Amino acid sequence: MRRAPWVPRSFVIALVAAGLVTACDGPPDRPSHLEPLRVVLPGEVAPGTSTRIQAILDQVATLSDVSEQVQWTSSNPSVLSIDAAVATGHTPGEVTVTGRFEGAQFGPAPVMVLPPGTFRVRGRVLTGSTSTAPVTAARVELPAVGLVTTTDNQGRFALYGVPASAAITAVKNGYSLTTMPVQLANHDQQLSMIIRPALQGTYTLTMAPGSCSNGPPLPANLLQRTYTVALTQSGSNLTLAQGSLPGANMTVVLFAGAFAPPQERWNFNLAIGERLPDGNAVTFNGSAFIRLSDFAGEFSGRIALNNPDADDALARCEASGFTFALRP
After folding, report:
1. Do 207 and 256 fall within a single domain?
2. How far is Cα 93 from Cα 79, in angstroms, rounded to an integer?
3. Cβ proximity of 297 and 314 under 8 Å
4. What is the 3-state secondary structure (H, E, C) of the chain?
């Protein structure tokens, strides 16, 4: 059902302005009793249009229009400005309006600036295995009409000017794109948009030196390694694809990753070995993480150079702060 043509909605704030007069020391030209100030604000204003705000002082037998005597304030004049009791909409959004009159303050009261026939949509972008972890700085947009915003540190967002029938998208670097169709009839729609981390594919894995302890030290050339890895994703978990790290010179005991929503990063556990041309093997056994923002992080654990015929390592490194990065 299509919405009827837009008509500015308004509401009334009826405030008993006790600050205006008291029973004991009210101004001599007014009755010594409480006098209500009635304020009529528009609920919506269209961009590029203006409407008058009314403030009526009710003195029992006399109604006085004091609209232009009130000091009006908009929380965001770039969205809605107020001059001499005239409110003018500029860009889609939402503000709160307050006013002061003879020491009394009323509000804040909400006013939305929306194109005719459109709506406000609010919601959250979430992730995690239980879809409860907020995603900060996700991009939420309505490409069809050019609306875009980003989520706050609680994953919250608001879009203003959404048509009655729309498809809203949410995405962030390192996550898959999510699209949610909506049908709107009011401004109360609350969305929960779930986006999933995405890392499946083939990457170049690079590990570069950090700090080493508990030698005997490894040769420097063994601390810089580059491998090709193919990752298979199932929900928020990663494993090496069949045939990844190919070749008779590679041994994979463990290579698994899991997504950690609070830190927005992938955490890995790995135990891999590489047979060197001289018959020895270099092994990496430990944990690593990469950030979603750049797919780079750190490896910590044990790196060892082993001779298959020897009982003890030829050299070892208790590694920390090693670069661990994936590149497409």
Report:
1. yes
2. 6
3. no
4. CCCCCCCCCEEEEEEECCCCCCCCCCCCCCCCCCCEEEEEEECEECECCEEECEEEEECCCCEEECHHHCEEEECCCCCEEEECCEEEECCCEEEEEEEEECCEEEEEEEEEECCCCCEEEEEEEEECCCCCEECCCCEEEECCCCEEEECCCCCEEEEEEECCEEEEEEECCCECCEEEEEECCCCCCEEEEECCECCCEEEEEEEECCECCCCCCCCHHHHCEEEEEEEEEECCEEEECCCCCCCCCEEEEEEEEEEECCCCEEEEEEEEEEECCCCCEEEEEEEEEEECCCCEEEEEEEEEEECCCCCCCCEEEEEEEEEEEEEC
**Pair of tokens at residue 277:** 């041309």
Q: Which tokens hold the place of 194?
A: 């779930």
Q: What is the pLDDT of residues 44-96, one digit of tens each?
A: 999 999 999 998 887 777 888 898 999 999 999 999 999 999 999 999 999 99
Torsion angles phi and psi, residue 202, rounded to 5? -105, 130
- Compute the distance between CA of residue 70 and CA of residue 50 in angstroms, rounded to an integer: 18
pTM of the model: 0.72
CATH number for 272: 2.40.128
Burial of 289 (0-12, 13-18, 19+ CB in 10 A): middle
CA-based max dimension of the chain? 108
- The one-letter amino acid code at 188 reads D
Give 130-169 pLDDT, tens digit per residue.
888 999 999 999 998 999 999 999 999 999 999 999 999 9
In a domain, 1, yes or no: no
State whether 17 and 102 are in the same domain.
Answer: yes
